[in-house]
Amino acid sequence: MDWLEEYVEKLRQYIRNASMIRTAAAYLAIALLGSLACTMLTMHITSLWIIVMNERIPFSRSQMRQIYFLTRVKQACPYFFMLISIIIAGKYYVENKIKSAVAEIGFSLKHMAAGDLSFEIAWQGEDEMGMIAKDMENLREMLKRDKLNQWRMGEEQRKINAAFAHDIRTPLTVMRGYTEFLIKYVPEGKVTEQMLLEKLDRISRQGDRLLCFSKTMTRLQTMEKWEVHCRRIRTAEICSNIKEVAEGIREEIQVLFTDWTKESESVLVDSGLIMEAVENVLQNAVRYAKKQVEITVQHKNNKLMIYVKDDGEGFSEKALLEADQVYFRERKQEEDDEGHFGIGLSITKMLCEKHGGELKLLNSVEGGAVAAVSFFVGE
Questions:
Q1: Distance CA 171, CA 180 (A)
Q2: H/E run at residue 96
Q3: Could you tell me which of 310, 286, 291, 325 has the C-alpha nearest to residue 364?
Q4: How many domains are contained in the chain?
Q5: Nearest CA among 271, 282, 310, 299 for reference residue 374
Q6: What's the rounded Cα separation, in Å, for the pair 189 and 192?
Q7: 361 near 345, Cβ under 8 Å?
Q8: Which domain holds residue 71?
Q9: 369 lies in the same domain as 249
Q10: Residue 27: other Cβ atoms inside 10 A
Q11: Do the domain assignments include residue 152?
Q12: pLDDT digit string (tens) for 200-248?
């Protein structure tokens, strides 16, 4: 009987995936066929019974009543069986086609209303209710992603505030110390002009450092509010812009450029956002490169990928894990080196994620560091 079970399972699968109108029509057809079969059987039995009753002799009054009753049953059975079959078909239709899906969606809405997005909608039908369930699942995924992004942004902001508070403490302490020194000893005439100028110069440098911190915080806040505005642009134009930026960063560094995109293809992107991210990784690569930087551009599977490789020492194990964090500095006082505060890669990561991509940091097997930035693009 395996073939029968297989046939029944295929029928159930068809009913589950069929549209609600087709399923209702199928249930109604089955109900009508069942009603017709029961009606024909009942009419046949009652007809035989009436014939038998008519052949009985002597013919009594009770026989007349029985024949009258059987005649009424014969006349009413089509309507009775049709009504019963429609009720049964409607019950099974609601149970199998609507009630389960509504219960699953109601379960999902209760969890979503309670803020729980860890569940998964398991309804697998391909009918209208299945489409609603899929839309609910997409909504759950979107809400979960937004919630994770909000939590991540909160964590990033907390780290930024903590790092800023920690780093700003040193210049303030230095400025306060020099100021107290001058206030105490200048009136007593114990500070020479050269010493005074030296202390004022150090105070001025710490003030410039605080100003740089302030500009850094402003830039981070601006990047967080950056909205993606896409427009259609040829990949050849993007590559040309990257070449111009790479060639103008530092003359003594050789730039090797490889374009794996098709010249005629165009994509839907925010070119300003992409260039901002690429400039950050390029500046980072040029800082640590010895002689050359290699840039590779590739477009595949709705992703625009840009690889920037330098021939420097590469990332340390700590840098591979933390270099894309805000205010990451592997060397002490690294911010004094040409004003770098360790935010370039963190901004790049933020921009890539806004454009549906990501930032990956790797070490090349040939030596040197590789920063891979990717962006989701429309075609």
A1: 14
A2: none
A3: 310
A4: 3
A5: 299
A6: 8
A7: yes
A8: 2-116
A9: yes
A10: 22
A11: no
A12: 888 888 888 777 777 767 766 666 667 788 899 999 999 998 988 887 7
